Fold:
Amino acid sequence: MDSKLKDQLNFYTEFKHWYIQIRKDFNFDLQKDYEARDYLSLVLFNKHENWQLENVLNSFKERILSKQALLVYGCGPSLEKTVDVIWRQKGISFFKNFINLTADGASVLLREKGINVDAIFTDLDGITKNEFKYASFNIVHAHGDNIERLKFFESEIISFENVIGTTQVEPVTNIINTGGFTDGDRIFFFLRPLLLSFHNLFLIGMDFGSIIGKYSKLEVNRNQDANTIKKKKLLYAMKLIKWLKKKIKNKIYFVNSECISKDFENLSIEEFLNF
Structure:
């Protein structure tokens, strides 16, 4: 029988209409998504016998509840400057006041800066094994295009204690489907049932324009124009966050990003530091 927290985090039925639309729009291979899910599931079954998904989920929930504010880092072009300014003005200890959650490659910058990473939400194409070992939790997403990356990280997934597996298709015993599409928007879907009324979310490097940041992929070494597919993915991510915002009562603030929607409040770095 599925345990309570796992049930609270599974939103496959609710999100299915989005997934069908996304799959058709991008011509994703449904069977490959199932193959990726099943491969990650087998890897997780190879972890030690005391590893239990529910225990890891509860540990993650306790971590989220330990602070009142969360910093969510995306890989947009404003990421590096925003983190650098905050780091220089407030020092590294300032970041300890927050839960630090990163979308994939944003964790590379935080590791380079020595900033604690509470969790990485990743399909593994923007991080190295160094980031995987650096974070307190890794939420690993399986989809049809990252099976080779799952194989590359297999030994790390097996040996790392706080791993949570997610999928785009139906959940199974040791993998959940919280909803979401990109690494960035999946963070909000995952947080949805965990947030309490006192939580505030501050988004850093969550840019949804036509430029992708240099931490988006391992092979990218500078900010550059997004290709057509990437722009389309960012547009979907923005739509999903706006859709989800109606279901989350918590305040969501974009820090040092261009105004992307009137539905959200934007803060300058100075406003954020004085918040």
The chain has a mean pLDDT of 94. The two ends are 44 Å apart (CA to CA).
